[in-house]
Amino acid sequence: MAQLTGTYVPSTSKWVSDQVEQYERTGGREGGTLLDTGIPVIVVSMRGVRSGSVRKIALMRVEHGGSHLLVASKGGADTHPDWYHNLLANPTEVTVQDGPDAHWVNVREIDGDEYDTWWDRAVAVFPPYAEYRKKTSRRIPLLLAEPVQRT
Questions:
Q1: Domain coordinates of the chain in residue numbers?
Q2: What is the mean pLDDT of residues 34-63?
Q3: If you average pLDDT over residues 109-129, what whole number do you get?
Q4: What is the CATH number of domain 14-147?
Q5: Is the pTM of this model over 0.90?
């Protein structure tokens, strides 16, 4: 199983750190949905841009063709989530766990027609994204996590 090395620093949001721990401990059998929505999540592990520590978050599961979309919505806030900056700074030090095993991915920000196609997929999975877009003047970044082989 793919795993980042280094010191793990749990999220300061207790429900996020609890969900990540539960998801990882049970291979996604528990903690696999966003709170009480029933909508599946994935766990994304990354390197912190300032600390260099391992950080983990649970995000909505938007998958197509083996790639996962990471929607930096922050609930429609006017600022990007901290994890967005971590992923841009360290796009090759990322794993995605979608079920029992984590795998390595490279992350890139998408735009243009690719953005529109993936945005529609995201809203189909989690319709509140459309409302989040209306709440903010910023363009919600979309990052694509594409699987890679590492030796």
A1: 14-147
A2: 94
A3: 97
A4: 2.30.110.10
A5: yes
